[in-house]
Amino acid sequence: MSVLFATRKRARSVVDSDKRDGVVVEGYIKGHKDESRTTTSIAESFESLGINSWLVKKCSQIGMTTPTTVQQHCIPAILDGRNVLGVAQTGSGKTAAFALPILHSLSMDPYGPFAVILTPTRELAFQIADQMNIFGTFTGVRCAVIVGGMDMLEQKMKLQQQPHIIIATPGRLHDHLMHPDAPNLSLVKFLVLDEADRLLEQSFKSDLTFVLGKLPPAENRQTLYFTATLTEELNQVAGSDSFRFDGTALIKTRDALEQYYLFFPQQIKMTYLMYLLLSLTPQVEETNRQKQRYSKHSAKSLEKTLKSLEATAQAAKSVIVFVSKCQTCELIGEVTRELGLNCVTLHSIMSQSRRLAALGKFTSGLAPILISTDVASRGLDIPTVDVVIQFDLPRVASTYIHRVGRACRTGGRGRSISLVTQHDIALLQHLEAHVGKKMDNYEVFAKEEQVLKLLNDVSVATRCAKLKLYERGFEDKVRERKARRSKQYGRLSDQKSHLAIE
Asked: Which PANTHER family does the annotation name (predicted)?
C-alpha cells in the first residue's frame, strides 16, 4: 500500500513560503520524522484563496464569509497541485477545505469520474455529497454516493452515468469495481481520504488496497488526507512531500466544556441515565405525557414519580448518549421511549434508511435525544449539542475527546457527564490524566434519593424493552452480524502479509 500512496517528488522545498497577503504563518507538525515546518499565508477571505468567483458567491449565499483556519491553509496548497495532510477537529470546516478546490478544478476541466472521496461511514458519505451539491449548484455537479445498505443496481446505474465525483465507503466501491463493466477510474485527478486515520485501520485495508489499485498512480493524481486524529501510520503514509497542516497541535478538550462524572453501583446504571434524561429534558417529557406516548402499564406510577422529582439541572435542548455496543444502544432507546421521551438511536446494525432518518430527526430537533455508538462521535456534521452523556466510557482517550467535542463545537458552553461504576474508576483516571483536567462531581444535580424514586419505573420499562427487542428478533440480527464479521476478519487474516504498510 505504501507504493500506492507514494507521494509525488517535487522541486519545491519542504518549507513553502508564500507572502500573498504579506503575512507568514508557520504550522508545526509534531511526530513527523523530519519534524518539517510548513509555511503558508493566511487568506482572510474566500476570494483571496484563489477559488473561482462563483464559488465565492455560493459561500457568501450560505453564510460562509470568512474561511476557517484549515481552509485558509489547505485550499491554496490543493490549488497549487500539492498532496495535503489536513488535521483539524470535527466542525472546523474540513469538508469545504477539499470540496471547494476540487469543484474549482472540475469547472475548468469537467469530466467524470474526476474525484473519488472515501469515507469510513455511510452517514459521512451522504453528508459530503450534500455539501458538494450545495457548493456545486452553479455547475450541475453530479455526485454518486456508493455505500452499503443501498440498492446495488441503482448504484450501478449511477456509476454508468460517469458522475463527476464518487463518494464511497471502500467496501461497497470494491464490490462495484469487481464487475466487468465497472467504472474506469484511471483518469481520476483527486483521491480524498476523509477520516483518513480510520480508513487505514485493519478492517478497511483489503478494500482500500483494491480500490487504490484501480486509480491512477500516485504521481498522476492528488491525494488529500483529512482527519481529526493524526496517527503514526497516517503520518508515514502521507510522506514528507505532502503539504501538512495540523490545527490541533495537542488533542485537548475545550475550556468551554463543563466535564462531570457520576459514581454509582453498576446495578442502577440504567436508572441514573433515565433520571438524567428526564431531568435534562423536562419540556420533552411534559409534551409526551400529554400525548400518552409512554407505556400505559406505568402511566400513573410514572406521573406521580416525575412530579416528585426536583428540577435541579439546567434544561437541555439536545442530548447525545454514547454507548459501546449496538445491543446497549437499542435497549436504551426502547427504555427511553417506554418512559415517554422522544429519542432516536444510531448504530451499525440499523438499515441505511433508518440511520439517515434518525440523524435527520435529531439534527432538525424533532427528536432531542440521540442514543448512539461511536458512529456519531466524529466526522458527522451534527449541530451543537447541549449535553453529551457517556453511558460507557471509551477505552481510548482520543475517542473521549471526539465524543465530548460534540457539546461545544461552535464556541458555546456544553456539558459532558460520564457515568462511572465501580468497574470504571481506573479508566476515568486515565481519561482525566490525558485531558489534564479533573472532572467535577455531578451528584449535586442527581441526588441518590431522587434517582431511586425512578427505580421501579425504570425496572418495569427495561423488562418491557427487552421483550420488544426479543419479539423483533434483534438478538438474531446481532448474531448474524457477528458471524459476518468473523468471516470477514478471517479473510483479512489470510491476506495479512499483503496489507502491511512498508
From this structure: ATP-DEPENDENT RNA HELICASE (PTHR47959:SF24), ATP-DEPENDENT RNA HELICASE RHLE-RELATED (PTHR47959)
